[in-house]
C-alpha cells in the first residue's frame, strides 16, 4: 500500500475511533483480567482514554457486577474483554505427571497438589450465560482474547450496537478477525505482558515485536490497528501511531496505579529488580504468558519439567501452589504478569498518569513534526 494512502487511512481511522469513543487521547488501558478494576477503567475513561475491564476470570454474575459498578462510576465509553480459549481437553496421564512433578514444591509449604485440575475459566464460546449478559448490558466495546466466538454471537453483538475488537499476534489471525466482521484489531507484540493472544497456543509463535507486527497488520488488513506491548510513555505511543496504529494499548503502565487490584507483593516486584527480567512461560497457566521473574518461573529451568496440561487446567495447580506458598509468607509463586517495559512503570493515580501520557504524546508528536 502506498505510504500516503496508508497514512491517510490511519489518520481517518484514528479520528473516527476517537470520535465514536469520545476519547481525547489514542490510549487504551489493557483489560488485564484479575488486575484491572471498574475504578481503574473509569478513571482512564474519564481522563480521555478507553478504560477496560477483563471478565474472563469470572462468571456472568461477577461480570455483570463489574459492568454495573463501572457504569455507576462513569458515563464514558469503556471496554469489556472476554476469553475465547478452546475447551480444554483432560489428559489423565499428563495431569497426573504435572501434579507429581509439583508435589515436592507443595510439600515445601506443607500442602499437596489438588486431586483434580478443574477448568477455572470458561470460554465465552462455551458460556451462554455470559453471552446473554453481554447482549443484555450492551457495553460500548467488547474485545476478545485467545480467539473468536461464533459468527452468530458476533452478529448479535454487532446488531446490539457494540463495537468489537480482538487480539492478533500474527497476520493470519488478523485476517481471520477481519473476515469475522470485527471493527478493530489489537496487535499484541512479543514484548507484551500477560497471556499471548494466540488462537492456537500449540502453534509456533512468530514472536513479532509490537512495531513489526503493527506494520504488518496495517498492510495485511483494512481494519484499524491498535498497538500493544512494551508501550509505557507518550513517546512510545507516538511511535506506535507513526507505525500506522490508530491507538496504543497500555497494560503494565497501569499496574502500579492505586486503582488496580495488584497486591503489595506484585507492586514491590514491579518496582524492584524483577522488572528488568520478564520471562515468557507456560508453567503458570498452560499458555504462553510474560511474567516477572520469580520462584515459580525459575521452575521451568528444571530439565524434568513435564509438558503442562491445557489452559486453564494448569492454572488450577498454579493458583493452589501460590495459595500454599502465601500461607507460609512466600509471595514468589504469584502470577505477576508484566511486559518488557516494566522498568518504566510509574506509581501514581490513573488520572494523573493519563495526563502525563497525553502531555508526553503531544510533545513527541510536535518533535516528530519538527524533525520532518
Automatic annotation (TrEMBL):
Protein name according to UniProt: Propionate 3-nitronate monooxygenase
Keywords: Detoxification, Flavoprotein, FMN, Monooxygenase, Oxidoreductase
PANTHER family with a match to the protein in the record: NITRONATE MONOOXYGENASE-RELATED
Keyword Aminoacyl-tRNA synthetase: no
CDD domains on file: NPD_like
Catalytic activity: 3 propionate 3-nitronate + 3 O2 + H2O = 3 3-oxopropanoate + 2 nitrate + nitrite + H2O2 + 3 H(+)
Required cofactor names: FMN
One Pfam family hit: NMO
Domain of life: Bacteria
Entry's family note: Belongs to the nitronate monooxygenase family. NMO class I subfamily.
Keyword Flavoprotein annotated: yes
GO molecular-function term, one example from the UniProt record: monooxygenase activity
Amino acid at each position: 500500500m502506498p505510504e500516503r494512502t496508508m497514512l491517510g487511512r490511519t489518520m481517518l481511522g484514528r479520528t473516527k475511533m476517537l470520535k465514536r469513543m469520545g476519547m481525547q487521547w489514542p490510549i487504551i488501558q489493557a483489560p488485564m483480567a484479575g488486575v484491572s478494576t471498574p475504578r481503574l477503567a473509569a478513571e482512564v475513561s474519564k481522563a480521555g482514554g478507553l478504560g477496560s475491564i477483563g471478565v474472563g476470570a469470572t462468571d456472568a454474575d461477577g461480570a455483570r457486577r463489574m459492568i454495573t459498578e463501572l457504569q455507576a462510576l462513569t458515563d464514558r465509553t469503556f471496554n469489556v474483554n472476554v476469553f475465547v480459549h478452546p475447551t480444554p481437553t483432560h489428559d489423565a496421564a499428563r495431569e497426573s505427571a504435572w501434579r507429581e512433578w509439583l508435589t515436592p514444591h507443595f510439600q515445601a509449604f506443607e500442602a499437596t497438589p489438588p486431586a483434580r485440575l478443574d477448568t477455572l475459566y470458561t470460554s465465552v464460546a462455551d458460556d451462554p450465560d455470559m453471552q446473554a449478559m453481554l447482549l443484555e448490558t450492551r457495553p460500548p466495546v467488547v474485545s476478545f482474547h485467545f480467539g473468536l466466538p461464533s459468527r452468530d454471537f458476533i452478529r448479535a453483538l454487532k446488531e446490539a450496537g457494540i463495537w468489537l475488537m480482538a487480539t492478533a499476534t500474527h497476520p493470519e489471525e488478523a485476517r481471520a478477525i477481519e473476515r469475522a466482521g470485527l471493527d478493530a484489531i489489537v496487535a499484541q507484540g512479543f514484548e507484551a505482558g500477560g497471556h499471548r493472544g494466540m488462537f492456537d497456543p500449540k502453534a509456533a509463535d512468530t514472536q513479532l515485536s509490537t512495531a513489526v507486527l503493527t506494520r504488518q497488520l496495517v498492510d495485511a488488513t483494512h481494519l484499524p490497528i491498535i498497538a500493544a506491548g512494551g508501550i509505557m510513555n507518550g513517546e512510545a505511543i507516538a511511535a506506535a501511531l507513526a507505525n500506522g496504529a490508530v491507538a496504543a494499548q497500555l497494560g503494565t503502565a497501569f499496574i502500579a496505579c492505586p486503582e488496580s487490584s495488584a497486591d503489595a507483593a506484585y507492586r514491590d516486584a514491579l518496582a524492584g529488580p524483577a522488572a528488568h527480567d520478564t520471562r515468557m512461560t507456560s508453567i503458570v497457566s498452560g499458555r504462553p504468558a510474560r511474567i516477572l521473574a520469580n520462584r515459580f518461573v525459575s521452575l521451568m529451568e528444571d530439565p524434568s519439567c513435564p509438558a503442562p496440561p491445557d489452559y486453564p487446567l494448569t492454572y488450577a495447580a498454579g493458583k493452589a501452589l501460590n495459595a500454599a506458598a502465601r500461607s507460609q509468607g512466600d509471595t514468589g509463586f504469584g502470577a505477576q504478569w508484566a511486559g518488557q517495559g516494566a522498568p518504566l512503570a510509574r506509581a501514581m493515580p490513573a488520572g494523573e498518569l493519563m495526563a502525563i501520557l497525553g502531555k508526553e504524546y503531544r510533545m513527541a508528536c510536535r518533535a516528530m513534526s519538527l524533525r520532518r
